[in-house]
Structures are given as C-alpha cells and as structure tokens.
Design goal:
This protein is an alpha/beta fold. It has a single domain, classed as TIM Barrel, CATH 3.20.20. It contains 15 helices and ten strands. The structure holds iron/sulfur cluster. Residues 70, 72-74, 77, 79-80, 116-117, 148 line the site of iron/sulfur cluster. Pathway: Quinol/quinone metabolism; menaquinone biosynthesis.
Length: 398
C-alpha cells in the first residue's frame, strides 16, 4: 500500500499537467481517496478547457440498428441473434431512411449505424447505405461502426481494412464510433468475446483509419470480470496509439448490463468504480480531448457526478437505442431534462456537433428549448415480445 503522501504527490503532478505512468495510474485508480481523485481530474479538465470550463456538452443522435444477425456471439451481448436463428431481423433501406428523417425532424445531428457482424454484409452493403443516407440527408453526420465491423466487412469482401475504410468513407461515413473496443487486453477480451478480433488488431484498424483522416471515439466496457490492472492496460493501449495519431476524439467508458446474455450478470462494475474510471481516464489520457459520462448505463445522477470527476460531455439524447437496453439499461431522458441535469450540476449546457463544436449554448434558461419530442427511446427488439418501449412515439417522417 503506497503512502498517502506518495498518492497526493502523483495527484498534484497530474493536476498540474504532468503525465503519469501506467503504474502510477493503477495506484491512483485503486488507492487514491475518491474525492481527491475527482478533484485532480476536475483540475485537469478545467485547465484543458480554460475559458469554456463552465460548459458541459450533449448531442442529439439516433442509433440505427440495421440487423441483429451476428456471427461473433460475444458473451456480454443481449442484442445479437445467430444468423440461422428465427430471431434474426434486418431493416431495409426505406426503414433506415425513415429513421434518418425522424432524426432530422427531432433536431438530431448524428446517426450511429450499429449492427451485428452479418455473414453476408461486405463493404458494398455499407457503401450503398451510407451513400443513400448522405444523398437524402447531407446534414446528418454518419458517426458509426468501429474496427470490428471494418475487419469483418473487409474479410467478407476480400479486401484490406485500408480499402474498406477508404470506400465507406468515400460513400459517406464521417467518423468511427469506436464501439467494439470492449476490453483490449488479451485475457479479458478473450474471456468475453473469443471470436472478436484481438485488441491489438482493433487498435491497428483504428490507426489505419486515423492515418486516412477518419477520426473516431474510443470506448471501454467495464464490469465483465476484468482486473484493475487490465482496465489501466486498456487505457495505456489507447494512449500509445493516440500519441502517434491524435485521432481519438473522446474516451467513453460504460458499464456491462447484466440481462439476457451469457455472462448472466455474475460480475458487474460498481458505480464508484465507474466514477474512478472517468477520473483516471481524464488524468491518464492527457492526449484525448473529451471524456464522456454515460448516464445511459449508470443513471442520470451518476452522469451528473461524472461532470465533477473529469467528464466534459454527458453523451446524447439517444432517440433510439436497442443494444444496451436489451441487456437491461432502462434509463431514459429527453433534451429538456438533460439540459436541466447539466445545469443542476453547476454547468452551462451546450448542444454539440459530432466534432464537439458548440451548436447552441443554453446560457439563459428563459431561452431553453420547449420541444419535448427529443426523447431517448428504449426499443428492445432483442427481448422476446419486446418490439418497442410503450412510450415510443416517433414523429411522422412525412
Ligand atoms: S457485441 Fe456486436 S459483435 Fe458482439 S455479439 Fe453483439 S452484435 Fe455481435
């Protein structure tokens, strides 16, 4: 057990802008007093955003799930169905375009195209869909997919990852969402996603994308039995690539949800572990601009707290979500509530673009939006009998 004085001196160095080692990060993550860790992380955030440190951002977006058919069978996933299962569904292009239209109608600026590793969907499928979306809705940013999907579609089409990225980028993909990172260290990853590409490969594909000018976010799935050392190793692997490319715009940890999957909730991250991860990510990832609090998996109160532990962004009003909600995430919100939550946490809310520019700064409550239709929807298509949340009401796209 390190001395408190040692811990404080590392926290002071980090708060003053110094880089810390993975070994120091592990000590802080495990042993630093929670509030001291949060204070140091908040100091790092304030310095990085000096002048706009009073703001916290959110985005309006929609996840569009095009199929649940997946050959990869991750043990934590409640969304997928094996390709020959009668539970497989796919969405046709008209359906996808209708969902895009609703996103625009509700003030959304981004879509996240997200699905399983369909055995037949190669690069051509994504080219066709991204081109159609961009043609119909050039104002929508396609922030979608990740290294896993790229690796899979490249294999189906018999091309390199580099060619796959060039082609889907040319067709309309703006940036990668960075899902599929799960846990990057080998033991922890193999334990929960044995058929997925390795963590090294996930990073390699992201690095190829960054070098082609396609930026991304990065994620971490917490709570599937990984060790503290593996969590820090995950951060180290991301920081090392980021030192070379600078292409990760944000880091977004979220927690494993325990329902309807093979892991059966036998392990879960606590909310304190989650807050500690937000804080240590802000301190350790000194080369990643944005740290996002995930209220969707941890709850709105923890989301608010994350803003005091180094997060500068509270994620999105997700107009549709099927993946983590299938595994038990039940938190919902709407645009007006997210604005109130951010303000109640002592910050000024700002709606952002995918690239984090501020679109609207809500600095006067008198001018807050009053349109309450921008609501997060839980539409659990993967749960038997569940096709949509009873409160799901989408506008008529026509
Ligand atoms: S997490 Fe993605 S790749 Fe893994 S089983 Fe679910 S849909 Fe398939």
């Amino acid at each position: 057990m390190p001395e408190n004085a040692d811990i404080q001196s590392v926290l002071d160095r980090a708060a003053a802008g110094g880089r810390i080692t993975p070994e120091e990060a592990l000590v802080l993550y495990r042993d630093a007093p929670l509030h001291a860790l949060g204070q140091a992380a908040d100091a790092v955030r304030r310095r990085r955003y000096a002048g706009t440190e009073h703001l916290a951002t959110y985005i309006i977006e929609r996840n569009i799930n095009y199929t649940n058919s997946c050959v990869t069978a991750c043990k934590f996933c409640a969304f997928y169905a094996p390709p020959k299962s009668e539970k497989v569904w796919t969405r046709d292009l008209d359906d996808i375009l209708r969902r895009c239209a609703e996103t625009v109608e509700l003030g959304g600026t981004q879509i996240m195209f997200q699905g399983g590793h369909h055995p037949d969907y190669g690069v051509e499928y994504y080219e066709k869909h991204f081109a159609a979306i961009k043609e119909a809705f050039p104002q929508l940013v396609i922030h979608s997919l990740g290294a896993s999907e790229v690796d899979h579609m490249a294999r189906i089409s018999g091309v390199s990852a580099e060619e796959a990225i060039r082609r889907i980028h040319a067709a309309g993909l703006d940036s990668f969402a960075g899902a599929g990172a799960e846990l990057l260290p080998e033991r922890a990853r193999t334990a929960i996603a044995p058929l997925k590409e390795s963590g090294e490969r996930w990073l390699e594909v992201m690095e190829i994308a960054h070098n082609l000018g396609v930026e991304s976010t990065s994620t971490m799935l917490m709570g599937t039995g990984e060790t503290n050392a593996e969590r820090i190793e995950h951060l180290r692997m991301i920081r090392e690539v980021q030192d070379r490319t600078g292409g990760f715009r944000a880091f977004i940890p979220y927690t494993y949800q325990p329902e309807n999957n093979k892991l059966r909730g036998q392990t879960q991250a606590t909310l304190f572990e989650y807050l500690r991860m937000i804080a240590i990510a802000r301190i350790f990832l000194d080369n990643v601009a944005h740290i996002q609090g995930s209220w969707l998996t941890t709850g709105k109160d923890v989301g608010q707290l994350s803003l005091h532990y180094g997060a500068d962004d509270l994620g999105s009003v997700m107009l549709e979500e099927n993946v983590v909600s299938s595994a038990g995430a039940r938190h919902r919100s709407n645009r007006m509530e997210l604005i109130r939550l951010i303000r109640a946490a002592g910050r000024v809310p700002a709606q952002r673009a995918t690239t984090y520019e501020h679109l609207v700064v809500h600095d006067d409550p008198e001018n807050d939006p009053v349109d309450d239709r921008a609501v997060s929807h839980i539409s659990s298509t993967a749960i038997e009998g569940g096709t949509a949340h009873p409160g799901l009401k989408l506008v008529d796209a026509n």
